[in-house]
Specification:
The chain has 3 helices and no strands. The chain is mainly α. Helix 1 packs parallel to helix 3. It is elongated and about 50 Å long. The model has no long low-confidence stretch (mean pLDDT 76).
C-alpha cells in the first residue's frame, strides 16, 4: 500500500480525533457548569458540544470524500480554515472558563 492510498484514511482519523477533542472539552466545561451551577458555562458547553458534533458529523466526512475524489490534489482550504476556527474558538472558551473560575 502506497503513501497516497493511506492518506485519506489517516486524514479522516485526524479529523475524527479533532472532533472528539472538541467534545472532550465540552464535557469538561459541562462538568464545571454543574459544579459551579453556572447557566452561562452550561450554555457554552452545549455550544462547544455542537461544534464538536459538526466537525465529527459534517466536516470530517466531507473532507474524507473530497480527498477520495481528488487523490493527490490539495483539498478545499475553506474547510480546513473552518475546523481551525472551531478549534481556536473552543480553546478560547475553555481558557475563559478556566480563568474566570472563582
Amino acid at each position: 500500500m502506497s503513501e497516497v492510498e493511506t492518506q485519506p484514511e489517516r486524514t479522516a482519523l485526524a479529523w475524527q480525533r479533532t472532533g472528539l477533542g472538541v467534545l472532550a472539552v465540552a464535557g469538561l466545561l459541562g462538568h464545571r457548569a454543574v459544579e459551579d451551577r453556572s447557566a452561562v458555562v452550561l450554555v457554552l458547553a452545549g455550544a462547544v458540544a455542537l461544534l464538536g458534533l459538526a466537525v465529527l458529523g459534517g466536516l470530517a466526512p466531507r473532507r474524507y470524500r473530497r480527498l477520495e475524489d481528488r487523490r493527490g490534489r490539495v483539498a478545499e482550504p475553506r474547510l480546513v480554515a473552518a475546523v481551525t476556527a472551531v478549534v481556536a474558538l473552543v480553546a478560547l472558551v475553555a481558557a475563559a472558563a478556566v480563568l474566570t473560575r472563582g
